[in-house]
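pasting for the record
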Amino acid sequence: MTTTDPRVRYEIRAATRADKAEILELARFLDSVNLPNDEATIEEILEHSEQSFTGEIGDPRRRNYVFVLRDLEQKRAVGTSMVIAQLGRKDAPYIYFDVHVEERYSATLDKHFAHQVLSIGYSYNGPTEIGGLVVHPAVRRSPERLGMLISYVRFLWIAQHRDDFQDRVLAELLPPLEPDGTSHLWESVGRHFTGLTYREADRLSKRNKEFIRGLFPDGDIYASLLRPEAQDVIGKVGPQTRGVEKLLRRIGFRYWNRVDPFDGGPHFIAQTDEVLLVQRTRGARLLRGTTDPLPGAKALIAREHDVAPHFHAVPSHFQLAPEGAGQVVLPEETCRHLGLRPGDEIALLPLD
């Protein structure tokens, strides 16, 4: 089967402050620490992202990148995702609960118990985090697999800038929450130690984590002392992120026996160099564009620029050129959209 790309409908690019209104609309579907439904915070996040793509933020570990997926026909953003270069610094530690089992036995009573225990931890040199993944509900089941595209682009970026990222990559998934956003773990633990609601603590932790270290207990917390509904969410994946869990497991992530200290959401981890998508990303040069049909293979094709928005990527058919190693032939429409000329460098991530 051969085909060609008559036009480019969807593109992924680096987000800019001009995208604030559309990113804010997407944030309403997630409203997380990484992507809150708050106009002022979104503006700060986008400014930080712009300065990360330009290199204005000199320390790579302090850079955060936001990508936006746009429907060019509808002229609107339909997805977004993020890469946080490093979790955990002296001014903002990475905070978590390690989850382990402690066994107890009494010979006198001949009774054995296995207790789930939560142990708070702090890291000042944590992993890279992928997050902020949102796909507009109207396109979540589109045949173009838009959720996959906006998720995959993060790994392409990491692969192309490998030295700027940590040796491990973390993904924190949402646990089951109540329809009003209530976290049963927070109601059973965090609220008793801080006096804050889940949303208040979630928002505050984005700017200042001192209150967690100052108010949370240093010792172990036995989950068996919590309400059953709180125990039930620890390390569980909520229905809204089960598709993400499936994708993560397929490309090399695993549950880390570690959870978010606010809501119990599971942390998934992978060695960066062992992530399938990082391994499959390659650099190449454009040999030529063509209007001829190409084989059915498709890839995410990306190019970086010296001017804003500094990064573009589109899904496109491609063909490795037999004329020379590391060269590809692309549809002429893809070349026009990305502004490519023969010899230009691209990044290529084959799609499943």
